[in-house]
Design goal:
Strand content of chain B: under 5%
Mean pLDDT of chain B: 82
Helix content of chain A: 25-40%
Largest sheet of chain B: none
Oligomer: heterodimer
Low-confidence stretches of chain A: 1-24
Mean pLDDT of chain A: 91
Largest sheet of chain A: 11 strands, mixed
Radius of gyration of chain A: 25 Å
Distance between the termini of chain A: 30 Å
Helix content of chain B: over 70%
Radius of gyration of chain B: 24 Å
Strand content of chain A: 15-25%
Number of strands of chain A: 19
Largest interface: A-B, 48 and 47 residues
Chain lengths: 505, 313
């Protein structure tokens, strides 16, 4: 109707005006390259890192993080903890509507949290399982009552667990293919493995901060093809630029680069006690694991495999996290490694097998490590496996060592608890240390940053000798973009936030 | 003839059943668990167990198979485990991409293959023949992947004439559609062109030796006319049959080509589905491809009979 009237007016106002109006109505579009196709577009069921890019543009969360990973207001304007740390009160933003016209209020928050906790197959349940109940304490105020204090909860609400879905739409069975949230961009269409298209949500509460009419996500798995698209002008921005391609981007006068150390790490998990581990497996002895780690020169690995762009690591907390522990990364010490092996009663050469994903980068890392530990008397076989099989074997304990990683979470708990706690769901080596468990649990129960830092420091230092995982490096988040793109900043969580971003004509 | 077609179609039913059982069995042999593959980082064992139950992955395999085949007969191929989209609508959206790519690639292959084959046959054992043979051999040997990347670098990155990847449906914009498919069709077509060229050459050489060609030449007919009108028409028979069979090979090539150019077609879908252990999608696609193969083989036989009446029993 509205369109028809505009057309009528322009038709009447002559050719000149027609041209002008066509100009002013030109759509502004941003095309963003992703490393893989996201899975289902339901924040409570979604699993992939790449889905989070889409949710960041489509769904507002209760709270968000800033560039320093500090929690900042989102759909909640302010919040407060009770003294016992068991009640979190949030005041909600007024005048927010969902993309289908539903009103955002305390009832909507209650609905969303309950859906995340009870929906079959919800992957958010474990992230916010400390929530016992949600109380609607006012039209625009909610109280989260917790079973136990949970320092990581607020941080969880900055991601998918805090995404607010339109309640009526979320009750329908096809929500995953027709998602409705309250973010600046709404779902328009999707072709699997080809594109996901979002369009501007006209009634967004903060509309003026967003400058595109349309956002198109294009999954292109091959990094070199992604780069070719960027250079050819078929993408405006891409995530996941390979370290080996950085020079190419820097050498292209039409392109710019943004890089930030991410939260994700790669490491080698030792199978200590999972599945069919031989009772006298040498990997049960922490001295053997430490020897393995000492034989690796992390700086050289970074230079050889990643052009020196990565950050050598000895812990789960990246330097961008306030919980990063300043324990220097051990320098390579082959003699000490040999001595440790000898002390552990190992006859060299010790034969071990490392599982590696069958992609070129992981293979190269495997080969470099193979050469390094070889000099300490460890004969390392590399076993290539595609990702699905690797995960399966790692989970079942059908492996000795496995090269795998974690994309990282803003709160330290999300990067360590599940992997290191003896009952952790992702503890594939079955490492177990009661003292470490105690520290990890205590760090969950307090909101005091200094106390938490002290506890995590103890954990990190203990892991230097226990060595359940030989942390290798932190991956940077590297974005390539056209020079016309203005206002883009790389955040440590690696997501793309479009507020204030625009394309110069 | 009609009898043959009916008989073949009836025979197709057990074949398809066998294919579906094999696909089902094969994917159960694949290492890795679909739910775990989908879970990626988020591997909460409780959730995984719940999902396995939801998708009936813990049921005995025969039970799973009969449930699937029962629905398939009703035209319901289930739902993608990964995105919750119905498999039938996924297939319907991807099929046009691969069909169009295959047809264009075939045009490329026939254009290059037949013309080079004729030239090589006419100039048999000269340097022209050796050169075309060498080029053909290179065409067979060059990996799709490598050629694709090179073409992207040349035409998209340096010259910026063509898009590096992606796809625009023909219904949206014909020119853009052809632009997105030109390079992939070229890559896919060159591999087949070589095969077609070798067969055309062999077929032409045997025809050119025949008596009636000598007679035609003796009558003083012009060489090009002889070659194209008399010889080529007869040499064409085996090529027609071969072409229908080569469509099957195209599908194999399409898998790689679609990966390189990120074309959302059948090939890319099946590779991604296998890596993600999205069994519902793998089964659906293989079934449709198997039907396609059976139909193509039938078509090849029918064409052969039409061209070569002597074979009719």
């Amino acid at each position: 109707m509205k369109k028809a009237r505009i057309t009528l007016i322009t038709a009447l106002s002559g050719l000149l005006l027609l041209g002008a109006s066509a100009h002013s109505q030109a759509e502004s579009v941003i095309r963003i390259g992703l490393g893989a196709d996201p899975d289902m577009l339901d924040p409570h069921l979604a699993r992939t890192y790449y889905g989070r890019f889409v949710f960041a543009a489509m769904c507002d969360r209760l709270v968000d993080v800033d560039e320093k990973l500090k929690v900042v207001p989102g759909l909640a304007t302010d919040w407060a903890w009770s003294d016992d740390g068991k009640t979190l009160t949030m005041n909600l933003r007024e005048g927010v509507t969902f993309q289908d016209g539903e009103k955002f209020d305390a009832n909507a928050v209650k609905f969303n949290i309950e859906r995340a906790l009870t929906l079959p197959g919800s992957l958010r349940k474990s992230e916010i399982s400390s929530i016992d109940s949600v109380e609607v304490s006012g039209p625009m105020q909610v109280k989260f009552h917790l079973k136990t204090p949970d320092a990581a909860l607020l941080s969880q609400l900055t991601d998918r667990a805090g995404a607010m879905l339109a309640p009526e739409a979320a009750k329908k069975p096809d929500f995953a293919t027709h998602p409705v949230c309250s973010g600046p961009y709404q779902f328009a269409s999707r072709v699997q493995q080809d594109r996901i298209v979002l369009t501007r949500f006209e009634n967004y509460w903060n509309k003026s901060a967003y400058h595109f009419d349309k956002v198109i996500f294009l999954p292109i798995p091959d990094a070199s093809v992604r780069l070719a698209n960027l250079r050819a002008g078929d993408l405006d921005l891409t995530e996941g630029v390979a370290a080996s391609d950085v020079k190419t981007v820097e050498g292209d006068s039409k392109l710019a680069l943004a890089k930030v150390t991410g939260l994700g790490y790669q490491g080698i998990t030792f199978n200590i006690n999972n599945g069919k581990v031989d009772a006298n497996s040498p990997l049960k002895d922490p001295r053997v694991r430490e020897a393995f780690s000492l034989a690796i020169d992390r700086d050289a690995l970074n230079q050889v495999a990643f052009e020196g762009l990565y950050t050598p690591s000895n812990q789960a907390f990246s330097p961008v996290s306030p919980y990063h522990v300043n324990t220097p990364v051990s320098t390579r010490d082959v003699e000490k490694a040999k001595a440790l092996l000898k002390a552990a009663g190992v006859t060299t050469p010790l034969n071990l097998t490392l599982l590696v994903t069958n992609n070129p980068t992981a293979q190269q890392v495997g080969q470099v490590i193979q050469a390094m530990v070889g000099e300490a008397g460890i004969n390392l076989n590399l076993q290539m496996s595609e990702f699905a099989s690797l995960l399966d074997r790692q989970q079942r304990g059908d492996y000795q060592l496995s090269l795998s990683g974690w994309s990282g979470r803003p709160d330290p708990d999300g990067s360590i608890y599940s992997f290191i706690n003896s009952k952790g769901t992702l503890n594939d080596g079955r490492y177990s240390n009661a003292q470490v468990d105690e520290w990890l649990s205590a760090a969950r129960l307090t909101n005091d940053q200094a106390q938490r830092q002290a506890l995590y420091t103890k954990v990190v230092n203990q892991l230097q000798t226990d060595m359940p995982i030989a942390y290798l490096y932190f991956e940077p988040r590297i974005f390539g973009m056209t020079k016309k793109l203005q206002g883009f900043k790389a955040w440590p969580d690696g997501l793309v936030r479009l507020a204030g971003v625009s394309l110069a004509q | 003839m009609l009898e043959l077609i009916v008989k073949r179609l009836l025979l197709a039913i057990p074949t398809l059943l066998l294919v579906s059982i094999m696909v089902f069995a094969l994917q159960k042999l694949l290492p890795g668990d679909p739910v775990l593959a989908m879970a990626g980082e988020e591997r909460d064992p409780a959730v995984i167990a719940q999902l396995r139950a939801e998708y009936h992955l813990d049921d005995p395999i025969p039970t799973q198979y009969f449930a699937w085949i029962g629905n398939a007969l009703k035209g319901d191929l289930g739902m993608s485990l990964r995105t919750k989209e119905p498999v039938t609508s996924l297939i319907a959206s991807k099929l046009p991409v691969t069909l169009e790519l295959s047809l264009l690639a075939m045009v490329v292959a026939l254009g290059i293959g037949i013309s080079m084959g004729i030239i090589a046959a006419v100039r048999k054992d000269t340097w022209v023949d050796h050169t075309t043979n060498f080029v053909a051999l290179s065409g067979i040997s060059v990996p799709h992947f490598w050629l694709g990347i090179l073409l992207i670098l040349l035409f998209s990155v340096h010259l910026q004439w063509l898009p590096a990847s992606g796809f625009v449906p023909i219904s949206e914009d014909v020119a853009q559609n052809l632009k997105t498919l030109l390079l992939p069709a070229l890559v896919l077509g060159t591999g087949l062109a070589a095969t077609l060229m070798r067969h055309t050459r062999a077929s032409m050489i045997s025809v050119l030796k025949a008596d009636y060609i000598r007679t035609a030449r003796a009558k003083g007919l012009l060489a090009p006319k002889v070659v194209l009108k008399h010889a080529f028409r007869n040499a064409l028979m085996p090529i027609v049959t071969l072409t229908t069979l080569l469509f099957g090979e195209l599908l194999g090539g399409a898998v790689l080509t679609e990966q390189v150019f990120t074309l959302p077609g059948f090939g890319k879908m099946i590779v991604d589905a296998v890596f993600n252990r999205d069994y519902a999608v793998v089964q659906g696609v293989v079934l449709v491809v198997a039907i396609g193969f059976l139909l193509l083989n039938l078509l090849a036989d029918v064409l052969y009979l039409l061209i070569n009446p002597k074979m009719r029993g």
